[in-house]
């Protein structure tokens, strides 16, 4: 399978799964950049935010809701956390299957680098 996140969704590749339902899967980032670093992905393969269709709206909303729930489960919701979605080259997207980063457990600067 060409897409590593599709492979994780299909349980063809290893991952530390944090949450899954019929639309969304969340798993730990393999190279965490913060004490909390979870990726939340739609099961459907969508390359980037640019390829999202109206049919994906509820799934993407669900991704954000899962981010919020995991932030609470990991104890970072009250102090603060960041949710990031990188789109294409200038933003540094490296895996072309839409994913939200849930980052927490340390301060984050603004503006981002
Ligand atoms: P982005 O730069 O927004 O495309 O983020 C891709 C993220 O996927 C990076 O933080 C990688 O560390 C992470 N990643 C890549 N391959 C895997 C994998 N097999 N399992 C978990 N996370 C991965
Ligand atoms: Zn994919």
Summarize, please.
This protein is of the alpha+beta class.
Helix content: 10-25%
Give the total of domains: 1
Quote the average pLDDT: 98
**Which strand order spans the largest sheet, edge to edge or round the barrel?**
1-2-3-5-4
Shape label: globular
Number of strand segments: 5
Superfamily (CATH H level) name: HIT-like
* Unreliable residue stretches: none
What class, by secondary structure content?
alpha+beta
Instruction: Give the name of the CATH architecture.
Output: 2-Layer Sandwich
Question: What is the succession of H and E elements?
Answer: HEEEHEHE
CATH topology: HIT family, subunit A
- Cα radius of gyration in angstroms: 14 Å
Assigned CATH class: Alpha Beta
Largest sheet: 5 strands, antiparallel
Number of helices: 3
- Strand residue content: 15-25%
**Which cofactors or ions or other ligands sit in this model?**
adenosine monophosphate, zinc ion
Task: Based on the model shown, name its key terms.
113 residues; alpha+beta; HIT family, subunit A; 5-stranded antiparallel sheet; 3 helices; binds adenosine monophosphate; binds zinc ion
Question: What does this 3D model show about the protein?
Answer:
A 5-stranded antiparallel beta sheet has the order 1-2-3-5-4, covered by helices on one side. 24% of the residues lie in helices and 22% in strands. 24% of the residues are buried. It starts with a helix and ends in a 9-residue tail after the last strand. The chain has 3 helices and 5 strands, in the order H-E-E-E-H-E-H-E. It has a single domain (4-104), classed as HIT family, subunit A (2-Layer Sandwich). The chain has helices spanning 4-9, 57-73, 88-91; strands at residues 17-20, 24-28, 36-42, 81-84, 100-104. It has 113 residues and is an alpha+beta fold. Strand 1 and strand 2 form a beta hairpin. It is globular.
